[in-house]
């Protein structure tokens, strides 16, 4: 056989082996996530869902009610995006650990605030004691397209250290709003 043909076959074999490895990892992740729930929890969820669907059909008289409710929610979302300046473009969540009263999830979030893009990645630890639920953010990683602005990079570093998402969103909103005002002002004078 020609050496180039053998190389092509070897490359194809390696690509298939990599695809098998990725699919195996994906399968293990899905299987692991499904094993977080006991049979009792699954049965409770199924019964709750059945009660919801039976009660849900009684609560909504027609599909037009659902459509009106959806339009109302879309209007509210549009208002919040206009009011805050935030537009979330993607979100993914992966459960890493789940026990009786403790859940660890990894979140990835990206979006824009006015004209500034951002990406967040963090772990959220939720613990339930009696009827109280507490949540702790850890391993916060923020990526922003701030250019060469050292104040923004200092702010991002500080926020990552403290894991304070609320402060991040509040500060980003104010900063992005003033950046937008500044940009419009300079455009006015050009």
TrEMBL record:
<feature type="coiled-coil region">
    <location>
        <begin position="6"/>
        <end position="33"/>
    </location>
</feature>
<keyword id="KW-0175">Coiled coil</keyword>
<dbReference type="InterPro" id="IPR027801">
    <property type="entry name" value="CENP-P"/>
</dbReference>
<dbReference type="GO" id="GO:0034080">
    <property type="term" value="P:CENP-A containing chromatin assembly"/>
</dbReference>
<dbReference type="GO" id="GO:0000775">
    <property type="term" value="C:chromosome, centromeric region"/>
</dbReference>
<protein>
    <submittedName>
        <fullName>CENPP protein</fullName>
    </submittedName>
</protein>
<dbReference type="GO" id="GO:0005634">
    <property type="term" value="C:nucleus"/>
</dbReference>
<dbReference type="Pfam" id="PF13096">
    <property type="entry name" value="CENP-P"/>
</dbReference>
């Amino acid at each position: 056989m020609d050496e180039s043909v053998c190389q092509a076959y070897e490359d194809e074999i390696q690509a298939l082996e990599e695809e098998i490895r990725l699919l195996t990892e994906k399968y293990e992740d899905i299987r692991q996530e499904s094993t977080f729930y006991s049979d009792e929890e699954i049965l409770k969820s199924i019964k709750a869902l059945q009660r919801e669907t039976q009660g849900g059909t009684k609560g909504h008289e027609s599909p037009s009610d659902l459509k009106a409710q959806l339009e109302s929610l879309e209007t509210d979302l549009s208002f919040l995006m206009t009011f805050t300046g935030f537009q979330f473009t993607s979100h993914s969540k992966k459960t890493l650990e789940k026990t009786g009263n403790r859940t660890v999830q990894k979140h990835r979030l990206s979006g824009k605030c006015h004209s500034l893009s951002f990406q967040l990645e963090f772990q959220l630890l939720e613990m339930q004691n009696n009827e109280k639920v507490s949540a702790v953010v850890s391993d916060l990683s923020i990526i922003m397209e701030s250019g060469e602005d050292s104040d923004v990079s200092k702010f991002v570093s500080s926020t990552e250290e403290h894991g304070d998402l609320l402060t991040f969103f509040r500060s980003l909103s104010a900063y992005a709003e003033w950046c937008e005002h500044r940009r419009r002002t300079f455009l006015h004078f050009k």
